Amino acid sequence: MSEKDITRFLQALGLSKREIQVYMFLAKSGVQSTSFVAKRLKMERVQAYRTFKKLQEKSFIEATLERPTRFTIVPFENLVDTFINAKKNEVMNLNEQKQNLLVSWKSISTPESEYPVAKFSIITGKKKIHSKMINMIEESNKQILFLTTGLGLIQEDIAGILDSAFDLSKNHKVNCQIITDISNENLKIVERIDQNITEDHINIKMHHIGMSSKFFPRFLIKDEEEAILYAPFGNETSVLNLEDEGLWINDKMFISVLKAFFDQMWSISIEATRRIDELKSGVPIGEIVVIKEAEEAWKRVTKTLENAKKDVVIFTTSQSINRLAEDDSFTRFLKKDLKVRIMASIDLDNLEPAQKLSTYYEIKHVPISYMIIIMVDEKHLFIFKRPPLNDWTSESAFYLPDTFYSSDPSQIERTSEMLNDIWKRGTDISEISSQAGMNLPKIEVSITETIPALVSLMLQNNVNSALITEQHQPIGVISDRDVLRDIIEYHKDPVKAIARDLSYTPLIILDKAESMVNAMQVMRKKGIKRAAMVKNGQLVGMLTEEENKKTAIPTPTASTATT
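Below the sequence we write its predicted C-alpha cells.
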C-alpha cells in the first residue's frame, strides 16, 4: 500500500487535506510541538493550532503532559481496527435491513426515465460543501472555474480545497482559474499561492476583483458539467462559521449562464500579482495622476523604491548625475539586490560623480536629455519636469512639483520599450573612463559670436559644449550649463552678450614635455581660477583654484566637453 492509499484512507475517516498533512508529518517525525510543525510545513500558527485541535478532538493525536505541550499520533493500526469494526457494524445493520428497504422502495418508486434529467441537491454546512467541492476537483478532467470572496478564500484554504486544486493542476494538467477579492486579510495566502504557481509552473491562474458584499455568492464549476453555488447563511460571517448552504446542480443551461458570468468577471478582473503589488506599495492599480505637491511626490517615489523587487531605470539630465551621487536621501532606497540602470549625458562636469555611481549601478552615456524619468519594475513610471529657470540651482536630483505618475500597463510598456532602446544605443561608462583622454568639443565658435548663434549651433549639432576660438585658435570651452548659469545667475543679456562675455573655461595647452605643475604655475601667474588642460589635442584634466592648492585632478570633472 502506497502513501497515496493511506491518504485516501485518512480522507475516508473524515480528515481534511491539512489535517492529513499534519498527521503524516507527526507520523514521520515523532513527538513534536505545534510551533515546530507549523514552521516546517510553512503554515500560519493560528491555522496550525486549529488543525491540531481538530485532530485531537477526532482522537487522531494525543498530547503530552510536558510544557510546552507536544503531540504524537494515535497508532495507525488502532485507526484501522476502529474503522474496520465500524464498517463491520454498518454492513451487518445494512444486511439486516436490506430486504425491508427493497420492499418499501418498490412500493413507492416509479421506473426511472430513459432520458437525462437535470438534478440538484441542497447541501447544508460548510464542511459538507467543502467535501463536495474537493470531490468535484479531484474528479475533474479538463477545467475548474472557481469564484470566491476574500473571506471565502481563507476558509477554503483551511479546508484544503486550494491544495486539491494544486495537486490536480500539477499532476493531471487540469486548467484552473480562480477569481477572488484579494485584501490585506488574505494577502499572505495569495502570496503563497502565487509563489507556488511560479515555482512549480502550475496551470493555475488567479485574478482579483473587488467584492463589496461579504455575502457575494461563491461557486465552483467542474468541466462545464456540474456546479456548486453556495453562500453564507444568516447575518454573520467568520472563518469558523459552519452554517453555509450550497446548491449542487448539473443542469447544462444553468451552468452555461454561470460560466458566462464567470467569463465576464474574469475579463474585468486583474492579475493577482498586480493586486499584490498594489497592496504592498500602497499605489492604486492603473493610476495616472499628476502629483502637485513636492512632499507628496517624494513620499510616492520613496515608497515605490522601498518595495522595488527587480530593477530601476533612471533617465536623467547631466546635472542630475552630480546630485544623485550626493543625494543619500534618494540612493539609500536603492537596494543592493536591485538592478539599477542610469542613463544621462556624461561630460567633464559629471564624469567623476558618474564613475562614483558606477561602483554600485550600471551607467551609460546617452545624447543630451531634456526629460527625467524613473521606472520601477516596469510597473511604476515617474516623469519629472525640468525646473523653471528661477529654480535650476535646486539641490534635489529631481524637480518634484507636478510629478507625473502612472501605473497604466500600456503606457508603461511603451515607455519601457523606449528606454530599453536608448539603453542599447548608449555608451558604457567604463568605455569613457578607460580612454586616455577626451576629445575636445567638435564645434567651434568665435569669441565674437552672439549667444543665440552659439546656442543654435549647439542644438543643430546635438552637443552640449563648444570650443571658443579667437582668430581660429582655441582659447576655451563652454557648456550649455555655463551659458544658462550666466543668463540666470549673472543676468547676462542673451540678445546682446557675445561669447567673450560668458564664463567659459580657458584652455592651457601643454607641450609634450610639460606637466600639470606647469599648468598650476600658469594659473597662479594669470590669476585663473579654473582651467582645462589640453595635451596632444585631448582634454587630460581640470584644475580649479582650490585643487591647485593640492594637486591636479587625474580625470576630467567639469562640464566643458561631450563624450
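The radius of gyration is 37 Å.
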